[in-house]
Amino acid sequence: MNVQSIVLWKKLASAIFDCFDLSVLGLAMDTNMKATLCENTLENAYKAYPDIRGSILHSGRGTQYTSGLYHKAIKKYGIQQSMNSAGGRCHDNARCESMWAKFKEELLYGRYDTSKMRVDEVKTLIWRYFISYWNNRRICSANGGLPPVIKRQQYYASLQDVA
Q1: For 103-127, what is each residue's pLDDT tens digit?
Q2: CB count, 10 Å around CB of 23?
Q3: What is the pLDDT of residues 7-65, one digit of tens each?
Q4: How many CB atoms lie under 10 A from the CB of residue 134?
């Protein structure tokens, strides 16, 4: 499994994004961008998808991803971190950055003035968008026009057909 992790959107949300079917595997939210936010994202992804063990996780080079706490969590869940050591390049997590851009374009811009919303309201918007809409209903051209959950189901069905 090839996954990406990124913290974004006013330092409120962190997500782990599966590069295979474009689903959000883990999501965590807080009011800061510390390593504990990213650790919680890993934990949530592992709870939802124990098969994440053995994955390669691409991330940025922020302090939350280079912290001892985060490295300990990565080891705990059996994940290998791929971090670009060359300064200034962010290609490893570009797909996840694109996911956040689509989120902002499709949900926020022109629809909600989040500066006038409470933090819990913004968290609810983010949760519903990714866990309900993105994973289950949003069609993705990279998935042949299928939502991530359908592509994942088709993959597991193909494994049963082979067996």
Answers
A1: 889 988 888 887 788 888 888 999 9
A2: 25
A3: 444 568 888 988 889 999 999 998 888 889 999 999 999 999 998 999 988 887 778 88
A4: 25
* Per-position DSSP letters for 56-100, written without gaps between them: EEEE--SHHHHSHHHHHHHHHTT-EEEE--STT--GGGHHHHHHH
- Cβ neighbors of 82 (< 8 A, separation 6 or more) are 56, 57, 58, 59, 92
> Taking the alpha carbons of 67, 71, 72, 76 in that order, is the dihedral positive or negative?
positive
Buried b / exposed e over 29-65, threshold 16 CB at 10 Å, is bbeebbbbbbbbbbebbbebbeebeebebbbbbeebb
Confirm if 53 and 47 have CB atoms less than 8 A apart: no
Q: What are the structure tokens assigned to 148, written together? A: 């991530």
Phi, psi at 161, each rounded to 5°: -65, -35
Q: At 12, phi and psi to the nearest 5?
A: -110, -35
pTM score:
0.83
Which residue's structure tokens are 């359908």?
150
Which single residue is written with the structure tokens 């409120």?
12
